[in-house]
Amino acid sequence: MSETLINTQQLKRSDFVSDQAVKWCPGCGDYAILAQAQKVFPDLGVKKENFVFISGIGCSSRFPYYMDTYGFHTIHGRAAAIASGVKVANPELSVWIITGDGDGLSIGGNHTIHLLRRNIDVNIILFNNRIYGLTKGQYSPTSELGKVTKSTPLGSIDRPFNPASLALGSRGSFIARTLDRETKHMQEMIKRSHAHHGTSFLEVYQNCLIFNDGAFENLTNRDVKEDNILYLEDGQPMLFGSKKTKGIHLDGNVPVVIDIEDDKWSVDDVLVHDEKDFIIASILSHITFQPGLPTPIGVMYAKDVPVYEDLHMAQIDKAKTNRQGSVSDILTAGDTWTVE
Residue 321, by phi and psi: left (phi above 0), alpha (psi -120 to 50) or beta? Predict the structure, then answer.
């Protein structure tokens, strides 16, 4: 990062709080995401004026109004395209895309997958509440089969997207997940996203109190969440449960739950997480909401691969180096003719 863009002044949370009234429904999970961003960003070591937040359309997309940084509330599904232009034009900026499961995976799905495959150094935070909130409760690309909504009164027959699997299949280089209720975990995931050089994709399970309340109840209810959440740590065995005695074991290539208190198993039989392993990441992305298996949160996949704007700038430098003559010389080089 250029020294001219590194922050040398101590910033505070209040430096990132705008003068705009926050207009989300009381109890919305969006408040938690906003609060954690405002807590974390003062410590990222970047000058405040070098942050840019770009959003599309949806409840989540009001985010740029509430962060006292540069920002752009764009059009439906096009945040990824506009953010790509911002970053490629000025690679030194820290660019953050705020989107939702509708905005980023429906009308904006095409832009999202191409941003991920290009690996432009921007950060995506995808708010996933498994419903269309802003337009008052229609089913979204992540709504479960059978979901009854205003637009699916007999239940949805669409198979839902799995955002982590979609990002992995798009050759994303950083894929992570967190929960709106897991505030300290979310802070760590935001920091990890920022530290990654390339496109980071952070999915946040976020409750819509009005139109889809309790969508993630099994992950937030204190009585059962320890048995339903798998907290991922690189290099550590995949243990979960209140006593950390349950683990993920591969039976061939099928993940199953084992209990290491059973004499038949030990911690050595538990799958060890490796953030750089594409196959492990694929397994983790697919066990989401599978009966009898916990839902992974944390970094599923993180690998350094060439970054688009680095390659782009190198290509420009090469073109400048190899340039011969003026623009006029280039345009008139080779076979030319005159039309009378």
Answer: alpha
Question: Which domains are present in the chain?
Answer: 7-235+274-312 (3.40.50.970), 237-272 (no CATH)
18: amino acid identity, one letter: S
What is the b/e burial string over 114-140, where b = at least 16 CB atoms within 10 angstroms of the residue's CB?
ebbebbbbbbbbbbbbbbbbbeebbbb
Q: What angle do CA 188, 190, 194 make, to 5 degrees?
A: 115
Edge-to-edge strands, sheet with 295-302 = 70-73, 51-55, 94-100, 123-128, 200-205, 174-179, 295-302, 229-231
Residue 98: other Cβ atoms inside 10 A: 30
pLDDT in tens, 180-202: 999 999 999 999 999 999 999 99
Per residue in 7-45, is it b (16+ CB within 10 Å) or e — as a string? eeeebeeeebeeeeeeebeeebbbbbbbbbbbbbbbeee
Which residue intervals of 79-136 are DSSP H helices? 79-89, 109-118
pLDDT of residue 6: 64
Q: pTM (2 decimals)?
A: 0.93
Tokens of 75: 């059009």
| Residue matched to tokens 């007999």 | 154
Read off the tokens for 241.
Answer: 């449960």
Tell me how far CA of residue 105 lies from CA of 1, 23, 176, 190, 308, in angstroms.
Answer: 31, 23, 16, 21, 22
Phi then psi for 52, rounded to 5 degrees? -135, 130
Instruction: Give the strands of the sheet with 239-240, arranged side by side.
Output: 239-240, 246-251, 254-259
